[in-house]
Amino acid sequence: MMKNIFLISALLLSFHSPKAFAQQAASVMDSNVVKVKIEEVNLYKDQGIPFLAWLRDTFVVESVGGSNYVTVRGQFKEKVINATVNGRTLNRNESGYFAAKLDFTGEEKSFIITVTDANNKIFRMQYKMSQVADKKKIAVGPLPGVVRWRFSAGAGLTLISYRQQDISTYDQKVVTVKAGVVYRLLPGELDLGVNAFYNLVPLSSTSVDGYKIQYMGINVRAGYHILDSDSPLRVTLNGGMYFNNSYGNVGFANMYGPQISPEFVYIFNNGNSLFLYLKYAHSLSGSTGISLNDNREVATGLHYSFPISQSNRLSIGVDMSQLSLSLPDVWASTNTYSLSAGISF
Fold it and tell me: Which of 8, 60, 160, 335 is the most exposed place for a label (fewest CB within 10 A)?
């Protein structure tokens, strides 16, 4: 029958044949945007370090290796021959810029910087870091412990538009469920993640022949953090592999291959965030050669998330995907549009 032409042709070419990965189980970014400000303490006020300038008004609290920390960054605007923070050497470059990672386990932390200038004069100052509430004056609360595992779950409505050679184009609406897990291998630097989706409940279809598609996709990836976490803009480059399969009577079956996906997150002062991803995935299964245009998926998504507790976030967003597959005897494509909501914990 015509409804099986795609699957039969693909099986003759290869044991595997591709499918459309229409929804990326988009990351629900959690961002503990607890910030601290630095102030001088009166203990050494008469002396101080007049040529020290902090590079930011506030610094972000991060988590790594079982403790919270703050990376403070500044510049000595005069030449110094020695510098320490709490007795430890404070490294700086030729222009006097420095960065120091300091533990931050409570709502306030004190530290002492001592420097010796080119004239062997010693300057010393005690500073304190204290939490800063956001503009809405929402209580920041106690800092969470280090969380290396992050889980997410969501659901939404998906529109699938399917085209295949010798089959009339038709649309289908389905309820899609999503789930994901991220492990922070090197917090702030390298993450490992797995996410998945499934078109769980078909709602309606315009197919006059009764065709049905229920896609399932799994992604395994590693994400490298490109942009410094001090910035409100976070940039992560993800790379990995994917597998997709259709459990309906048409669609792309047993598709797999490499994928690359840059992610951009902008964190607002109130802790809300805007998340954008782009994705390119290439099909290895069922293809007779490398064609970056014919056997591939391109996708994008935009999500807005906000905290509902110290560690949980809600998100809403849209995802779009377009996959094309061209084999010697048949071609097919899938466009997908998804509106979903999710929670991370």
Answer: 8
Alpha-carbon dihedral 105, 106, 112, 113, rounded to 10 degrees: 60
Contacts of 270 (CB under 8 A, 6+ apart): 134, 135, 136, 138
Dist CA 261 CA 278 (whole Å) = 5
Quote the CA–CA distance of 49 and 249 in Å, as a whole number: 74
Alpha-carbon dihedral of residues 194, 262, 68, 267, nearest 10 degrees? -120
> How confident is the model over 143-159, as a mean pLDDT?
79
- 35-132 maps to which CATH number? 2.60.40.1850
- Residue 270 has which token pair? 């109130």
**Domain ranges in the chain?**
2-32+144-344, 35-132
**Taking Cα atoms as reference points, which of 27, 9, 10 lies closest to residue 18?**
10
Q: Could you tell me which CATH number the domain at 2-32+144-344 has?
A: 2.40.128.100
The token pair at 47 is 């002396």
Q: Are 172 and 162 in contact (CB under 8 A)?
A: yes
Instruction: For residue 153, list its beta bridge partners.
Output: 179, 343
φ, ψ of residue 79 in degrees (nearest 5): -70, 135
Strands 97-103 vs 88-89: parallel, antiparallel or unpaired: unpaired
β-strand partners of 205:
172
Rounded Cα distance, 255 and 82, in Å: 59
Strands (DSSP E) contained in the chain are: 35-40, 52-54, 58-64, 67-76, 80-85, 88-89, 97-103, 108-117, 122-132, 149-164, 167-186, 190-205, 215-225, 233-246, 255-267, 273-282, 296-307, 313-326, 331-344
- Residue type at 309? S
Query: Do 2-32+144-344 and 35-132 come out as alike in CATH topology?
Result: no
pTM, entire model: 0.61
Three-class secondary structure of residue 7 per DSSP: helix
CB 313 within 8 A of CB 28: yes
CA distance 210 to 201: 15
Give the three-class secondary structure for 79.
Answer: coil
